[in-house]
């Protein structure tokens, strides 16, 4: 890869090559809407190491995609504002960088795959043009060189007949192939961190298996840090190393994948796992979590999950919300009663 | 058999592809559903699984009469719906109702919930006398777990799960015997999904309903279905009881589909016998000759291109499978 841009990036003040590729500390994001302020992200912290897969698990509206957008710096603003916290790339706080510097980090160091490839790609340009744009803008390559690199990239993500397909428009690709183009685009500049926001939600299971296998392979080859945002607990169990479970804009549990599936320490995580249809429960009622997630403009005081929680006591209904308790050296849970939740299996 | 409430024989739906504006001519057809034979018995749940584009939604639309079959017969309670008169067809349709996929677009935003659920009574006025319709609608709301006082609210005032409940109440309005659920929970979050599935099972027990349950989520289908049919490119490739399909699938497509489903248990990571299929589903406008799955199948031989495998019982497994080389393969390992 060309090194000129990397040299410029190394000049980022405070860059520490030994620091973690991505570390989010106490991130706060709010949306100022006509109906009041929606607190989409209320103090989210997580980190990811090179080669590691960090899953961010949560249902719609829990703030997982907003977190990703804030990291990438593509939050719609207004109405969205980052009101606090730090996003550290190798020790450099991205939130303090001027936009011109941030642009260099984006795609170069931290790249993102979006959920719906059809709407994320521009319908009026060929796939080759859109891929090549990255090389032209970020690497200053000529059109011809950029196109040659685009073909290589399509080959990398195993699109058959890449040489011809580079001139096709997004609508000429199937859903799975379009997602491959998205992956190619994200990997174009060899990023260290890849954020995948529901990369397979719109795909069929057989295609999902193909895409996840491809992602895993590319991650292994490049020792990339992967942040996988999803609501699919099957996918998480398959690929994640560590999991952050989000609810109403907060991380409510953080643990290694084996620990969380074996003994969840937060009632919400436990409820989620129990609501998956399982073989041994055939013919029985599924244990559903009662009620609905709260509106982000009106998060209940105390623990946001308390109205739906079967463990809730008076202490849960009072501010402040439970902090993250240290369940074991490597895991935390934001529940006053984590011992009971974890113990009663 | 008298307890077969719904039956299809060689049901076919082709959508014509035309060329030209003034002199239109047909240049082909999208063979969305291509000869489907199904039976639904009283009180049972028949699951239909398959990937997008396999024709499961077109099949559902034909079953409820939203789409006219190109050929083939549909029997609702023993009556051939393509042979009876318009009036009888209309009455027959009352017995089979649809719950749609997307609770955000299948409810008219400008109608109140009461009007939405009560609208079937406009079409079939003899079900409930005019004076007691409002009460009936409130009963229905209560039945699906909504507050009967919310009868005058609009769909946007409800959450996704609640809207799906409204869709279910509407489907129940005419006291049908058969409910067709076309991806009823795929638009919902996991925690809400379980609530709706529980509701559907409760209603089935209370009202003795028969369900056709169409979904792409195989674990949900496994939970709710008694029998399962697997569709690929407009045809059923394998059909059997839930146990037969999940425990001893014989068609390669079923095996690939089942093995592709991620299991929510990290302990099984890397231990599953995962079959990653190559390529995409071919276009239904131009399906492969012979077996339609042969282009993606690892077992394909010459015979697969020449001769179309029939859906029939092939080996000891005892359930029909449309593959020349059907054999049992254990793909889903039960958690210990």
UniProtKB/TrEMBL annotation, chain A:
Signal peptide: none annotated. It is a peripheral membrane protein. One of its GO terms (cellular component) is plasma membrane. It holds the Pfam family oligo_HPY. One of its GO terms (molecular function) is ATP binding. It comes from Micromonospora radicis. This is ABC transporter ATP-binding protein. Residues 22-273 form the ABC transporter domain. Keywords: ATP-binding, Cell membrane, Membrane, Nucleotide-binding, Transport.
Automatic annotation (TrEMBL), chain B:
One of its GO terms (molecular function) is ATP hydrolysis activity. One of its GO terms (biological process) is peptide transport. SMART domains: AAA. The keyword Glycosyltransferase does not apply. It comes from the Bacteria. Belongs to the ABC transporter superfamily. Keywords: ATP-binding, Nucleotide-binding, Transport. The keyword ATP-binding applies. This is Dipeptide ABC transporter ATP-binding protein. Residues 6-258 form the ABC transporter domain.
């Amino acid at each position: 890869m060309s090194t000129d841009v990397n040299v410029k990036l190394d000049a980022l003040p405070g860059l520490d090559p030994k620091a973690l590729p991505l570390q989010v500390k106490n991130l706060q994001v709010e949306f100022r809407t006509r109906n009041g302020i929606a607190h989409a992200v209320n103090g989210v912290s997580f980190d990811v190491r090179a080669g590691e897969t960090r899953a961010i698990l949560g249902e719609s509206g829990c703030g997982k995609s907003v977190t990703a957008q804030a990291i990438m710096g593509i939050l719609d603003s207004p109405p969205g504002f980052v009101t606090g916290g730090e996003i550290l790339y190798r020790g450099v706080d991205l939130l303090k960088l001027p936009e011109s510097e941030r642009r260099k980090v984006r795609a170069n160091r931290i790249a993102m795959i979006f959920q719906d490839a059809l709407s994320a790609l521009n319908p009026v340009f060929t796939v080759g043009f859109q891929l090549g744009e990255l090389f032209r803008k970020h690497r200053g390559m000529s059109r011809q060189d950029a196109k040659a690199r685009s073909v290589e990239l399509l080959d990398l993500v195993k699109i058959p007949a890449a040489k011809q397909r580079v001139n096709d428009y997004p609508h000429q690709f199937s859903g799975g192939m379009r997602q491959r183009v998205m992956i190619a685009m994200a990997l174009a500049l060899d990023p260290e961190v890849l954020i995948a926001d529901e990369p397979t939600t719109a795909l069929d299971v057989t295609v999902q298996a193909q895409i996840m296998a491809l992602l895993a392979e590319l991650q292994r080859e490049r020792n990339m840090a992967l942040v996988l945002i999803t609501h699919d607990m099957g996918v998480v169990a398959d690929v994640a190393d560590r999991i952050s479970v989000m609810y109403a804009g907060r991380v409510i549990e953080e643990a290694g994948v084996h620990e969380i599936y074996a003994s969840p320490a937060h009632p919400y995580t436990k409820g989620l796992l129990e609501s998956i249809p399982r073989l041994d429960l055939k013919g029985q009622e599924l244990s559903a979590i009662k009620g609905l997630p709260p509106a982000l403009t009106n998060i209940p005081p105390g623990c946001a999950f308390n109205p739906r929680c079967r463990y809730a006591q008076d202490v849960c209904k009072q501010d402040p919300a439970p902090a993250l308790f240290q369940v074991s050296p490597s895991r935390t849970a934001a529940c006053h009663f984590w011992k009971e939740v974890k113990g009663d299996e | 058999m008298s307890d077969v409430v719904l039956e299809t024989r060689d049901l076919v739906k082709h959508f014509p592809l035309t060329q030209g504006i003034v002199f239109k001519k047909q240049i082909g057809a999208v063979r969305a559903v291509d000869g489907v034979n199904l039976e639904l018995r009283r009180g049972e749940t028949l699951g239909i699984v398959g990937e997008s584009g396999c024709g499961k939604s077109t099949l559902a639309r034909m079953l409820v009469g939203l789409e006219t079959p190109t050929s083939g017969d549909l029997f609702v309670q023993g009556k051939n719906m393509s042979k009876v008169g318009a009036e009888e067809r209309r009455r027959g349709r009352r017995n089979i109702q649809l719950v749609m996929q997307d609770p955000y677009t299948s409810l008219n935003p400008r109608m109140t919930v009461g009007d939405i659920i009560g609208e079937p009574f406009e079409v079939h006025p003899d079900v409930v006398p005019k004076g007691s319709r409002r009460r009936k609608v409130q009963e229905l709301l209560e039945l699906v777990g909504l507050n009967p006082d919310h009868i005058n609210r609009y769909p946007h005032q409800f959450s996704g799960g609640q809207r799906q409940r409204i869709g279910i109440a509407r489907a129940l309005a005419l006291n049908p015997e058969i409910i067709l659920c076309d991806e009823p929970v795929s638009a919902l979050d996991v925690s809400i999904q379980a609530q709706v599935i529980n509701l559907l099972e409760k209603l089935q027990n209370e009202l003795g309903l028969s369900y056709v349950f169409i979904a792409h989520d195989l674990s949900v289908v496994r939970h709710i279905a008694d029998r399962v049919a697997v569709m690929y490119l407009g045809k059923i490739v394998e059909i059997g009881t839930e146990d037969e399909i999940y425990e001893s699938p014989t068609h390669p497509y079923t095996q690939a589909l089942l093995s592709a489903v991620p299991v929510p248990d990290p302990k099984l990571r890397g231990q599953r016998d995962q079959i990653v299929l190559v390529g995409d589903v071919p276009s239904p406008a131009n399906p492969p000759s012979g077996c339609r799955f042969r282009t993606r199948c690892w077992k394909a031989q010459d015979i697969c291109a020449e001769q179309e495998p029939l859906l029939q019982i092939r080996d000891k497994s005892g359930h029909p499978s449309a593959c020349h080389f059907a054999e049992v393969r254990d793909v889903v390992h039960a958690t210990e």
